[in-house]
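Per reviewer request, we include the raw input and output of the structure prediction for the construct analysed in the revised manuscript.
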Amino acid sequence: MNTIELATEKSMGKLSDEVAKEQLIADFKVAVADVEALLKATANQGGEKLAEVRAKAEESIRVVKARVAEAQVALLVKTKAAAKVTDAYIHENPWKAVGVAAGVGLVIGFLIDCQSLRHG
């Protein structure tokens, strides 16, 4: 593999990781919303044990929300840093960037074509 292919493969891997992280954050938000709705629905229910469970769940939700917020900030920082590095690289190596973009486009086109042949 040459340098451009390695850079392209590395970039695609990072992009895939970022998409997975964004999906994980979205899934956590849905889970948090569901648990919050459950807590609200059981707010009028009595019982010491239920109150303990509800308090534990509320604390867990608070912790998860804080972690999700931190993950979002970290993801945003990494995305901005990657964009700056990509911008600098493109300005320093415009023809290499065009070649990489064309290669990535060909790979994506090939994958789409293979997928449509399989299902079509």
